[in-house]
Specification:
Blueprint (H helix, E strand, L loop, with lengths): L1 H17 L18 E5 L4 E6 L9 E5 L4 E5 L4 H14 L4 E6 L18 E5 H8 L9 E4 L2 E6 L2 E7 L9 E5 L4 E9 L11 H12 L5 E6 L5 H23 L4 H7 L15 H13 L2
Parallel strand pairs: 4-5, 5-6, 6-7, 11-12
Antiparallel strand pairs: 1-2, 2-3, 3-4, 8-9, 9-10, 10-11
Bound molecules: zinc ion (ZN).
């Protein structure tokens, strides 16, 4: 019995490793890892940590310095990317990292998002908390989870975290800083790159993009790609709509998943980084998810 459990556990780990939503291979090779993040100053107190194609981070993060403490926001945090991020914070300020706003967590990725230093408090949506606590791993940090939105006022900085429900996953959190007019979309929006859509809810995702595009922003930090503005969210929404429309054509014609994978084409977007790397996972998810609706 125990042997069987171990085999099942190994299988589960093996499966999750083979389908990791990794950004590291987009650069074309696994060889020669670089730094995980390039730090970009957005405003005096806000810094974007942009995931690098050959690094260990699978998603961008944001560092907010509030005077007495630092807030980090993002997702897909592996131990290496956490320690690199802590080093980057140390270059900016001596203030300690007190809070991580975890924007989402992908079910089954048990080696991601569980290894923050113990003094850090995690803030996340109730759906993400549910997903985290269903794992065999235990998140040891204190957790605050919320339903609709949560506002932190730290020094002179206001941070509004909103739970958008379904989109890139279930319980996606976006973060808005009203004074700085900075929006962090996390993986709901990829800028000029295609990312992992394997847990996505496509119809809700596009509605959330429309809403985010309409916010009053000066700077938008995406889940992947460089810091940009709301017009770039619009361009991603157009890609997203084209992708969904194309998929619906295959479903209307009652094509199988294999036929769809073989013939699905979007020539306008095929040269974007990530398109081919995430193609199978994204097509499978879109096919199954839209078919069920
Ligand atoms: Zn993600």
């Amino acid at each position: 019995m125990i042997g069987k459990v171990i085999i099942l556990l190994l299988l589960a780990v093996g499966i999750s490793f083979s389908t990791v939503p990794s950004y590291a291979t987009i650069g074309g090779s696994n060889a020669g890892y670089s730094r995980s993040y390039a730090i970009e100053k957005v405003t005096d107190n806000v810094f974007a940590a942009i995931a690098q194609p050959r690094g260990k981070a699978a998603s961008n993060a944001v560092i907010v310095v509030t005077g007495t403490q630092v807030v980090i926001m993002g997702a897909h945090f592996v131990p290496d990317s956490i320690s690199e991020l802590m080093e980057e914070v140390g270059k900016i300020t001596t203030a300690p990292v007190a809070t991580v706003i975890l924007t989402h967590h992908h079910r089954g990725y048990n080696y991601v998002d569980y290894d923050f230093p113990l003094g850090i408090q995690i803030v996340t949506s109730w759906q993400t908390w549910q997903t985290l606590k269903e794992s065999y791993r235990e998140l040891k940090n204190p957790v605050i989870f919320f339903d609709k939105s949560l506002t932190l006022r730290l020094g002179k900085t206001t941070i509004v975290a909103s739970n958008l429900g379904r989109g890139h996953g279930d319980g996606d959190v976006v973060v808005y800083l009203p004074e700085e007019k900075v929006l962090f979309t996390s993986d709901l929006f990829f800028n000029n790159v295609i990312g992992y859509m394997g847990d996505g809810y496509l119809r809700e995702w596009v509605l959330n993009l429309e809403m985010l595009e309409g916010l009053d922003t000066r700077f938008v930090v995406p889940g992947l790609g460089k810091v940009t503005d709301s017009e770039a969210i619009g361009r991603f929404r157009v890609f997203f709509t084209d992708f969904t429309t194309e998929m619906l054509h295959y479903l209307e014609k009652k094509k199988t998943l294999e036929q769809t994978k073989k013939n699905f084409r979007l020539p306008k977007y095929e040269s974007l980084p990530g398109y081919r790397e995430f193609f199978n996972q994204n097509i499978e998810r879109a096919y199954r998810q839209l078919k069920d609706q």
